[in-house]
Amino acid sequence: MKLERGRTALLAIDLQNDTVGEEGPFGDSGAPAFAREHSVIENVMRLVEACRAAELQVIHVWHVDEPGHKDSTTNAELFRGIAAADALVRGTWGVRPVPGLEPLEGDVVVEKQRMSSFNSTTLDTKLRGLRVTTVVVCGAWTNWAIEHTCRDAADLGYEVVVVTDGTATISAEFQDAALNFALTTVATRASVDDVIAALQ
Question: Could you give the C-alpha distances from 98 to 14, 42, 45, 186, in angstroms and in order?
Fold first, then answer.
């Protein structure tokens, strides 16, 4: 695996208090426990630091709903669940990034309301403006936001790398289904160490 500096960006998706935080509304979903047991936050922190050191663009993608979820569609159970839990609301603790993954100067933040980071956001425009051709994808939840983002990135013409130990979801079964079945023909699967080695 080769990652060209100046042509590669890191997407850190939905690593927010409400999605992987123990005290968030989805604390009993399995996602916080999975992230903790597999050191996902610590792994992503290490990856973010390495990407910054290599001068790769770090892009944080966050799900952000407005208070009352008044402009959020509820056409799918996932979106209905977010609204019912009153989660990921602008201005709240839950919408903020987990400690240690706050954006720094030079990072980019993109907001979304759908599963894919590309759906109705500015992400594709920003990546093309930055001349990025490869995206390294990490974050939560693997079989929703990560999988949808990887598929859209591939359809839009990007080379895609999904970070196997930098992604979290609600169970080992869901993780396996996404990484070892759904994404096998969409993205290159690599560990944090693999990505860091490729940067060096």
Answer: 9, 11, 10, 28
- CA-wise closest residue to 191 among 14, 39, 29: 39
Give the CA distances from residue 134 to residues 7, 29, 68, in Å, rounded to whole numbers and listed in that order: 6, 32, 36
Q: What is the 3-state composition of the chain as percent helix, strand, coil, each rounded to the nearest 5?
A: 40, 20, 40
Q: Which among 10, 27, 39, 21 is positioned nearest to 95, based on CA atoms?
A: 21
137 and 150 Cβ atoms separated by less than 8 Å? yes
Return d(Cα 42, Cα 45) in angstroms, integer: 5
Q: What is the pLDDT of residues 50-107, one digit of tens each?
A: 999 999 999 999 999 999 999 999 999 999 999 999 999 999 999 999 999 999 999 9
Report the candidate in 161, 52, 151, 65 with the shortest Cα–Cα distance to residue 101. Answer: 52
What is 17-41 written as a DSSP string?
HHHH-TTSTTTTSSHHHHHHHTTHH
DSSP E strand stretches across 70-133: 108-112
